[in-house]
């Protein structure tokens, strides 16, 4: 009898407040709609974020992009460096969260450049006796020298992902240098065949990507700026190398393409020499910078099968954009890409900005995306 009375009381309570139940359902539906809208046009960063002045000597780094190790830029003694890099990573995480970024990175706080940490960790690379090659500007650069077969000896960025995953509830992204770009940034004294070297590097990247996904990365990005710099070679084997790196990798994968950091490249063309071809990669997203070069976005129609990660923050301009300016750039992208296939980000190279400027630009990015979502 008690059981029957208890159930009847619950029934009476439900019947007594039909309006409250209806309001609750409407509120839940509204909340679900808000979350769905928020998932449209998510914000992210390409990879890097300014490293604190107490961590690196910014004057020594300048606008350089080291290919070999550049340990002289670190201000912290070796025995304390990892702890300091972890602390700097926490600052980057909190800045991105406070700015309202949806998919965050570790800011690449442990790196001297986007590529050299991974490239110089591979077996077969002689870091004691580096080589040289012609860089994107036509000058000669010191680069890793390939002296033996390329093999991945150990995880390189897995701890980075684990640390990032432990310290945020946001979606997280990690970046790796792509195999084509690493092949261009090396002196090959072993394979003596660019395609063979790129494919060997791709196999090493693939092994790393598998472990990064297992460690908790939601998004894994390959940085491939040299596709743009050397389109003829890219046409021969660039897609093949990228697809070998991505082979069997689940989840969201990105290929990033750019013209070079704003800190080093002031005048950029308004079109890419190698972009539509990326439709043939197995990556789910293609990332391009578009704000500083004032890119003709009509080319995005040729990537209809891909989600586009669009650069809408100009890192060549020290002025922080207003949310309205950012919204205008996003809407320009929406003329060619559906909202369901658009992710927005700054152009690449945030590490070279003052931290205050970088944070302001990220806040403008989040606010501009919110303005666009409100009118969808």
Could you explain how this protein is built, in words?
This protein has helices spanning 2-16, 18-39, 58-61, 78-99, 116-119, 158-166, 179-184, 194-214, 226-229, 231-246, 323-334, 355-374, and strands spanning 103-104, 123-134, 140-151, 171-177, 187-188, 219-223, 252-257, 285-288, 307-313, 342-346. The longest helix has 22 residues, at 18-39. The protein is built from twelve helices and ten strands. The protein has 376 residues and is an alpha/beta fold. The N and C termini lie far apart (55 Å). The chain is globular.
Largest sheet, spatial ordering of strands? 1-4-6-7-8-9-10
Helix amount, in percent? 40-55%
**Radius of gyration from the CA trace?**
23 Å
Element string (H = helix, E = strand): HHHHEHEEHEHEHEHHEEEHEH
Please supply descriptive tags for the structure shown above.
alpha/beta, seven-stranded parallel beta sheet, 12 helices, disordered N terminus
